[in-house]
Structures are given as C-alpha cells and as structure tokens.
Amino acid sequence: MRLNRRRALQLAGATALLSAAGGYALTRRPEDLVHSVLERHFGPLRMARADLVAFTEASLARHRWIEPPWKLAAAFGAAYDAALEGPARKLLPEDSAAQLERFERHVLGDAVRLTDIAMRSDPEGGVSFLGPSACLNPYARFEEA
Q: pTM of this prediction?
C-alpha cells in the first residue's frame, strides 16, 4: 500500500479530530453527565452551577456504587450533548449500558426527591437543590428531640 500525500493528510486530519474529541470528553465532570441526563428527561434546565454540583455530590454520596467509571461518564456526557446517546448506547457492552441505565434512574429519582424540579409551575423555571433531608410536605411540623 502506497501512502500518497492526500492519504497522509486525511489520516493526519482524522487523528487530530479524534484527539480533539477525546480531549473534550476527558475534560467533562460528573455534574455535566448529571445535567445532561436531567435535561434529556425534563427539558431545558436552569439550575445554578453550585446547586448542580451539590446535587451531584449528594446523589453520588447516597449511591456510591452506581457511579459509572470516569471515562465512560465523560464520553457519554459528550454523547448526550451531541444528541448521539442512542447510537452510543448501542455500541456499549451490555454491563456498561446497564450501569449507565441504573445511574440514570437513581439520578432521576434523586432529582425528584432532592430538588424542587417536580414543583415547577413553568418548564422554564429555575431548579434549586433542597438538600439531602428535604421534606416536600407543606404541612409537616418538626419537633426537636
């Protein structure tokens, strides 16, 4: 196989593109994946960065065993942003896909329980992190023991 100038430029371009995509995926944080999951299910999400970080930490602290591996989470967060999560999920091994699905379910459950996302009257309304001991019952009375 002869390597001509055009083929060498194509290979160099493809290598640069893959390196850039990999570098972008590796700069992602766990809260980026959580934000992508929430936006996928609840639509556009306006949540302060500090609230998102606190929510992610609280959710992962409760379910430490469900956190996907860092590289998988970074790559899948980038796939969510590029709207390629369907094809990306089909390419994953069965155990990794199941792990991501479990992670998604726990994040969605925690979002309803730990934030005010379910109480929004407007889909464009902001979302706040209420905390790990949030009680959404407006009639609850707490007594100190």
A: 0.66
